[in-house]
Amino acid sequence: MNGAQTVANADAYWRRYYAERFRFGLATEDILAVLMQIPPIDSWADLGSGSESMLWAIALRACRFVAVDADPQRLEILRQFAARGRPRGVHATALRLCGRTDSNAFEMRCRSLSAVVRADCLAQSLPADPHLIPGSFELITQFGLLGLCRDAEHFTTSFTHLHFLLTPGGWTAGANWVARDSRGRVELTEQLYRNAATRAGVNLLLLKKITSADPDFPAVWIYLGQTRRTPLCPPPPNLHRRVS
Ligand SMILES: C[S@@+](CC[C@H](N)C(=O)[O-])C[C@H]1O[C@@H](n2cnc3c(N)ncnc32)[C@H](O)[C@@H]1O
Predict the structure, then answer these.
(1) How many domains in the chain?
(2) Which InterPro entries does the record associate with it (predicted)?
(3) In angstroms, what is the span from residue 95 Cα to ligand 1's centroid?
(4) What sign results for the dihedral spanned by CA atoms 25, 29, 34, 35?
(5) Which protein residue's CA is at the shortest distance from atom 26 of ligand 1?
(6) Which structural domain range is residue 190 located in?
(7) Does residue 238 sit within a domain?
């Protein structure tokens, strides 16, 4: 797997950040508020999803979504959780924060999970997979994935190839946490995001760094953008081969 290690393994991560109580002050509420700005969309891919996509799904209005992660254990937690369709405490608070008051709001979002795909999102290119067709998503997100890149070049090339998944005019949003111990991780800066966005043909509508109460991750970069209506250049033909 390319990139730095995630802070905790699948179960520990799930318990630490996505358990019964919503932990205010860690930027989760800020990320949800940014995601609420995205209009209803048909197709969404969450890259480096871990087991946590259902939390972000609450702020979104997506008909179907594909979760992509390198760790099969995290994907299995997500798949089973979505199949049960019952919110935990953290989700109940997020439903309230986002004004999702319909009794079936959470269940509907769980049902929109259409595939889980095991893939290395930080490699040179995404693997050929029938669920990851270039140009087929109206929204891509990543929360904590690109922050695992080893340096600026890795971040920029990964940011660019992940955006080949988007339709022209498609939406992109994400957040990356600044680790107190940043060894082996890219340094997250405004210029880094702006360079990567330019290379990917993304118009950044919002980019901000906010502080977090998590002592291990004292700041978070959040962004929201849209790809240009006409792509800067199409993906090379050998990138994401279509599977018949
Ligand atoms: C910091 S966690 C974030 C998880 C989740 N997106 C969230 O909102 O909390 C990073 C996630 O990226 C995944 N990951 C790490 N390296 C990856 C890679 N090269 N390709 C795909 N997923 C990767 C990890 O398995 C983990 O689920």
Answers:
(1) 1
(2) SAM-dependent_MTases_sf
(3) 23
(4) positive
(5) 50
(6) 10-227
(7) no
